[in-house]
Amino acid sequence: MKVVIIGGGIAGLTAAILFQRKNWTVVVNEKSTSIANRGFAFLMSSDGLSILNEFMASADIQLNRQNVNLFSLKRPNNEEVIKIQLDGWSCMKRIDLITFLYSFFTKDTLKEGRSFSHFIYENNNAVAAVFENGEIEYGDLFIGADGSNSKVRELLFGKVNFTPIEVKEIVGVSHKAWKNDNKDVLFQKIQSTQKGLAFGYIPVAKNEVVWFMQFDVKFEVGIDEKNPESVKTFCLDMLKDFPIEVKEILEANDFSETYFWNTRDFDVLPRFHKNNIAIIGDAAHLALPFTSAGTTNAVIDAKALSESFDLYPDFQNAFDYFYKMRSPSLKSHIEQGRELKKLFLNPASYSERGFILPLVSDQENPLNSKESKPIKILYFTDPVCSTCWIIQPILRKLKLEYDDYIDIEYKMGGLLPSWKDYNKGIIKEPADAAKHWEEVSLAHKTPVVGDVWIEDPLYSSFPPSIAFKAAQLQNNDKATLFLRRLKEMVFIEKQNIARWELIERAALKSGLDSAVLLKDMRGKGRNLFLEDLKLSEKLEVKVFPTLFFSNDNGEKLALKGYHTYDKFEEIIKQLFPEIKKKTNKLTPEELFAEFNNLTETEFMFLTDLKNEEGKAILIQLYESGKIEKFENKNGVIWMNKIV
Questions:
Q1: Hey, how many other C-beta atoms are within 10 angstroms of the C-beta on 189?
Q2: At 26, is the pLDDT very low, low, confident or very high (cuts 50, 70, 90)?
């Protein structure tokens, strides 16, 4: 079987490699006679990278890429309105990826200087592709990967209706040094609040930064796009009120290499094939650049089409399956790009809580929507409550066995307002808390360390409590992960979680927007925390944890302080006698995928394994590279390495 691919860009080359691996005969036909650098650089998600990673083992050259793990949106006055951790994103130069992909081909399998003209047909199926230089390539399957102005697409379906060009981009690579810190690589975007104008930049190498300027086309007046000095003057003038680093990047840029991008898209086609011809990448679908979707989607298209032929040997069923698999997410990405364009052109309508991340992503369900469950638990806790930390294994087991029936609502109790006049039981000062935590660790065989109260004591538990309430405004599930992470930091890693820099680190790790979190901590989050304190006082909560259980019939029961799992089950069954417990069938690997981090106590409790047997499994997972560990003087917490 022979596949003829028209277009030697990323989509076409990736598809060719994948079909070669299926032992198909492959010929790629590219109109250029050399590798074009148009596009400079782009972002790619983990979905696209995972496909490229399949090629690494057999590659002759290395693919250079820069991991990008933070996104920040600022205003021209340097006010940060969005800050989010990115997972699995990389930035790479287009020429590096094309060069890497080219290394898989010979002159017989990749033929340059071939500009597509038309097909030769027999019995409605294409049998050959004809090129403007008169050359002909015969084949069985034909794939059009010839970009947004695809001639293959036009021959199959006619002209598409492109949306009007309302936004243009100027793109370049500036030779500006940046701090080479792989732990904190930032995609920075600065966007005007007054008009459709933005500037973004991402490091791609130690002395290179790819940058772009997006602007409303109505501002493009008196500029000669072919004159480098004219373009430079235009950029500097448009961005004169932006932060100083913008000017520094522009001054270090060679404007003779800069290009203009007319942004546009078109609706998803009703199909991506006709007879034995299919189209992929920008030839099949085109999204606006606001989502950084194009390159990732091109690579995923290639993989999806290849896999379709693994499932269906006949062309029509394979093509139908390919369209069924790809069209829903592509429609979503196009809609996302259009929504971002509206926000860009009308910045007054911007709301940080309704902000759409300018990277391709599946649309989530409403953040805080929840199905109604028959048992409600009102849980009063505190980030520095050691007993609340001790019952973490119980809460996690409840999730595994009764998650379909219980809904836990977290409330903050305000355990430590300050150390001034603090007098609760045996604890009167930080040193008492340190001693108590060490005793708790010994009694419950869990890695609690009291050293934070000696080395860097928290002055209050209010800041992390307020931060949690602010996090709930973004997403309840992420807020719960955030609270867990704060507890790990203070109980195990002996870090002062009253400090903003540590709160922010935990927020980003949990998928929260730290810029929005900080704003909410000063406003709505603080008010929600005060409401929790009032409710705590009304319900006479004196002990942490305190849990109030209720059912739909209005029956209520309470647990105060530490209790065993059996007691929790007893109350749940009292309130809902017909409840059915799920059997925990998760493997150790699946447990770490579910919870990410597990203390040894949690692991033994959730798996019902004996101590020595459980430790042997943890060590095996550790030695196989599936988990890693953080060890302190009182024990170990094990962490999923693949997240």
A1: 18
A2: very high
Q: pTM of the entire structure?
A: 0.84
Boundary of a domain, candidates 329, 344, 359: 344
Q: What is the pLDDT of residues 93-111, one digit of tens each?
A: 889 999 999 999 999 999 9
What CATH number is given to the structural domain containing 604? 1.10.10.10
Contact 281, 11 (CB under 8 A): yes
DSSP labels for 100-113? HHHTT--TTTEEES
- DSSP H helical ranges for 73-227: 94-102, 151-157
The CATH number of whichever domain residue 271 belongs to comes to 3.50.50.60
* Distance in angstroms (rounded) separating the CA atoms of residues 237 and 216: 15
Cis peptide before 358 (omega within 30 of 0): no
For the chain, the straight-line distance linking the first and the last C-alpha, in angstroms and rounded, comes to 39
Q: Which residues contact 306 (CB under 8 A, 6 or more apart)?
A: 15, 18, 19, 21, 22
Residue 396: pLDDT over 90: yes
Which residues constitute the domain of residue 633? Answer: 588-640
- Mean pLDDT, to the nearest integer, of 500-505? 96
Measuring CA to CA, which residue among 443, 388, 391, 393 is closest to residue 413?
Answer: 388
Residue 409 is which amino acid? E
SS3 71: strand
Any idea which residue has 């000095």 for tokens? Answer: 229
**Of the spans 345-354, 446-455, 583-592, which averages the highest pLDDT?**
446-455
At residue 466, does pLDDT exceed 90?
yes
Q: Can you tell me the mean pLDDT for 461-488?
A: 96
For the sheet with 406-412, list strands across it: 406-412, 375-381, 546-551, 556-560
